Amino acid sequence: MSEARLSADRLLRRLAELAAVGDTGDGGCSRLALTDDDRRGRDLVARWMRDLGLIVTIDAIGNVVGTQPGFDDGVAPVMCGSHIDTVATGGRYDGNYGVLAGLEVIEAVQTAGVPLPRPLAVAFFTNEEGSRFAPDMLGSLAFVGGIAVEAAHDIVGIDGARIRNELARIGYLGGAPLPAAAPHAFVELHIEQGPILAAEGTAIGAVTGVQGISWREFTVTGQSNHAGTTPMRLRRDPLLVAAETAVAVRRIVAEMGDPQVGTIGRIDLDPNLVNVVARSATFTVDLRNTDDALLRSAEARVAEAIEYLAAAEGATVTSRPLARFEPVAFDETVVCLVETVARERGLTVRRMPSGAGHDAQMLARVCPTAMVFVPSVDGISHNPAEHTAPADLTAGAEVLAEVMIRLART
Amino acid sequence: MSEARLSADRLLRRLAELAAVGDTGDGGCSRLALTDDDRRGRDLVARWMRDLGLIVTIDAIGNVVGTQPGFDDGVAPVMCGSHIDTVATGGRYDGNYGVLAGLEVIEAVQTAGVPLPRPLAVAFFTNEEGSRFAPDMLGSLAFVGGIAVEAAHDIVGIDGARIRNELARIGYLGGAPLPAAAPHAFVELHIEQGPILAAEGTAIGAVTGVQGISWREFTVTGQSNHAGTTPMRLRRDPLLVAAETAVAVRRIVAEMGDPQVGTIGRIDLDPNLVNVVARSATFTVDLRNTDDALLRSAEARVAEAIEYLAAAEGATVTSRPLARFEPVAFDETVVCLVETVARERGLTVRRMPSGAGHDAQMLARVCPTAMVFVPSVDGISHNPAEHTAPADLTAGAEVLAEVMIRLART
After folding, report:
1. In this predicted structure, what is the pLDDT of residue B325?
2. Among A135, A107, A126, which residue's Cα sits nearest to residue A61?
3. In angstroms, rounded to a whole number, what is the distance separating the alpha carbons of residues A376 and A374?
4. B269 and chain A: CB distance < 8 Å anywhere?
5. Phi and psi of B101, rounded to 5°?
6. For the range A386-390, what are the long-range contacts, defined as Cβ-Cβ under 8 Å and sequence gap of 24 or more?
């Protein structure tokens, strides 16, 4: 038992209350970054922070941090947090859970009067999803000094809106310094958004890091022809090259083994007609690995395969990178602490990488950082059907509480 | 030398004049069936028919036939013809060439005063392309009694227009009986729309028949997942099944050899995003063969492959037929006559099936029928770049003339 007693009811009630802002009516939630719905969500969570007596600071990219008062300025807080913006067809747990669980941890610690030598803090970072503005994880990137404020302010969204204007419009263009002072440590509690914990019946994931991501778009150009009148020997079919590449990606990934994954999720043929051999096929390859050398090897093998396959069909290939993030390794001490705390509480726990990007990977640049995952039913996320059982939500929050308390004592 | 001397200039001039109707400004032509542009094209060609002194009849589906006068009613004509409707991005030769060459043949025969025991006739059939109304080859289908007039009249186009209304609107709802009396023989002169003649440097194709066509749409349903968080072993990726099917189609077709062809020309993923394993993949398989038993075998092998591949990935498959036409064999006597006439004129000639559908396949149901192909530069058709060299156009028309004259004497 932790010294602090969390209220599962309060956590679930706050999750429901926040989910009501931007409610899509199908169990889901839509609060794109810096929209009016995002403002209403922010106002609600900031009010809860102030109701707790936290010092609420807002920086120039709209990140909001609530910190326990009563400590000297130089004492770095143990921070948790995540984001409260969502994708257009978002669920109610992605991001929100980590923020509201952090709020609950601080409330429980304060209620119990647990004496700590450091303040606890909870943050929500701007535009983690990247659905309205690119890049994603923008707020936490700026928080750690990874992008200049002016550059971030000039970013224009999919609807033509500029970040600085939207921040000012919704009242979240704050004055707290950027980059921010580094926390003592950072822990992000999050739903897994994948199927592993749920499939195994494991309660807690001690996240060891974030996979490196390589997104590349390939365009194979062959020759458009009539599907009836063109003999097979005269064809230069870009769809065949794309298909053979998809098969090759699966084979390469299988040969490399876990944690290498590879996905062709998008393909567009031109002209995409039943009776026409396509002129060109444009498709994306998404490769991820926790080891950057292995990720580079996968990239090279896929590129080599597609060049070979295209040449064999008499087609040509061009490509352009869409995104490239190196893997992030979390702090071994904090990862271990998550495992230890989970085991002490009788929870099943496993180490695992995160396949998705998270704000924690930015914070990892400036302080000891790790993440705690809880199961996602059927691995579903970014979807109104996103769900985590209340018992799992509570277990994750209790692990977060104990990890933060122990970190505050180091 | 034929008894009739064709005027290459007049043929080319008429091709250019007809192409000016619906000119797309890029060398191409757009006269969708029963539109105002189609009416202007029809009016022009019907005027040329009347200028030649032909008896012009229009039936209830808008087919227009120009027949030499001065013969007893019971004497069936030797007919040639094709269509003058085009696809939206059509060229100037597809269809038009066969009609205007037929007009030229009759003008030359009349000018030379070649005595024939049967009239010659030239027809253009309604909605051969099928771009506005389905099915394609509708006019010739109705001409031979393959569809009831009422059913044809009720067909609604992609723009919501009904065939009967459009026929009346443009003045081509005629009174000639349907099904029409069978001609003595039918010959369709057409550009190949494929690369074979041009690639070989062969001047004339003696078309032995039309390939059977099987179009089927498959939908593979797997499970949509996050591309980063879902381990490969838990994936049910419909794109992979589609890709493996494309590879299997190429293999099956290669094993079967010419004239079997197979094409996957259309594929749509849902949701088609770079970082999401698709929920479903919908794609089409176009299979063609001149032998129906072999075509059925190809269909069965593809269906078997996709079922196997889907099961291996834990995905499910549904399918629906989009179109199915049995192969058509042309009349051996007329095919031979085309070969003979071409050789007599010192032209290179080869027998070949047609990979595309043509009005001649409908006429083949009621009279001895064949087709004459001329080369398409690079096999390009249904495209503003569609081109056939003037010398090839003239050679084809001269073969048509001599074939029709000889058929009229049998």
Report:
1. 87
2. A126
3. 7
4. yes
5. -65, -40
6. A386/A28, A386/A90, A386/A91, A386/A92, A386/A93, A386/A94, A386/A191, A387/A91, A387/A93, A388/A93, A388/A97, A388/A191, A390/A8, A390/A12
The predicted-structure confidence for B299-352, as pLDDT tens digits, reads as follows: 999 999 999 999 999 999 999 998 898 999 999 999 999 999 999 999 999 999
Task: Provide CATH code, domain B8-210+327-408.
Answer: 3.40.630.10
Instruction: Cite the beta strand spans of A22-119 per DSSP E.
Output: 55-58, 64-67, 78-82
Q: What is the DSSP letter of B160?
A: S
- Taking only Cα atoms into account, the Rg of chain B, rounded to an integer number of angstroms, comes to 23
Return d(Cα B313, Cα A408) in angstroms, integer: 48
Residues A192-249: tens digit of each pLDDT: 999 999 999 999 999 999 999 999 999 999 998 888 889 999 999 999 999 999 999 9
Does residue B381 surpass a pLDDT of 90? no
Peptide bond into B271 cis (omega under 30): yes
Does the complex come out with an ipTM higher than 0.85?
no
Give me the residue label for tokens 């970014």: A382
Asked if the C-beta of A136 comes within 8 angstroms of chain B's C-beta atoms, the answer is: no
Query: Which part of chain B has CATH 3.30.70.360?
Result: 212-325
Q: Which of B94, B214, B274, B290 is the best mutation test for A, with the most CBs of A within 10 A?
A: B274
The answer to whether residues B392 and B94 touch, using CB atoms and an 8 Å cutoff, is no
Q: Is the pLDDT of residue B1 over 60?
A: no
- Give the residue range(s) of CATH 3.40.630.10 domains in chain A: 8-210+328-408
CATH class of A8-210+328-408: alpha beta
Task: Look up the CATH number of domain B212-325.
Answer: 3.30.70.360
Model confidence pLDDT, tens digit, residues A101-110:
999 999 999 9
Closest among B190, B63, B37, B60 to B121, alpha carbons compared: B63
Q: Cβ contact (<8 Å) for A272 and B265?
A: yes
| Contact between residue B226 and residue A356 where contact means Cβ atoms under 8 Å apart | yes
Mind telling me how many Å the CA of A207 is from chain B's nearest CA? 12
Q: For residue B228, what is the nearest residue in chain A, using CA coordinates? A: A355
- B83 pLDDT higher than 60: yes
Q: Is the pLDDT of residue A1 over 50?
A: no
